[in-house]
Amino acid sequence: MAIAYWCILIAAVLPYVWAGVGKSAARGYDNRDPRGWVAKQTHPRTQRGNAAHLNAFEAFAPFAAAVLMAQTAGVDPGRIATLAVVFIVFRLLHGMFYLADKHLLRSLSWTGGIGCVVALMIQAALRVA
Q: What's the CATH code of the domain at 25?
């Protein structure tokens, strides 16, 4: 189960990675008003980094819940670990495709990641049914 827990940690850190990458593309970062600063940026990489940052936060809670649901329900730990690792791979690709402005690949990687979450939740639900 340690692998799945490490994946939760990685998923929790990813939003900050994408925010940092996005902010590094622009100059004059204002730490007194970081959200206002980001809202004023016109550099595409900064905007895409911020969007990837927000999307990573949106994906975190369902993923963490799915892993914990599956574990609590007694789903096979190997299956949980596999889906957790695949989720992380999809989320890394999602962020990279977001930054590279590859919209179709970004959407496909998002779909793969949410598919892992749904699979974990369904397996948990079937296990306790």
A: 1.20.120.550
HSE, CB side, 13 Å, CA atoms: give it for residue 12: 8
HEC string of 112-123 equals: HHHHHHHHHHHH
**CA-based torsion, 20, 9, 55, 52: positive or negative:** positive
Residue in the block written with tokens 């369902």: 62
Considering its fold, how many domains does the chain have in total?
Answer: 1
Residue 70 and residue 125 in contact, taking contact as beta carbons nearer than 8 Å: no
pTM of the model: 0.94
For residue 103, which of 54, 48, 61 has the smallest C-alpha distance?
Answer: 48
**Cα 109 to Cα 103: distance, rounded to the nearest angstrom:** 10
pLDDT tens string 10-36? 999 999 999 999 888 888 888 898 888
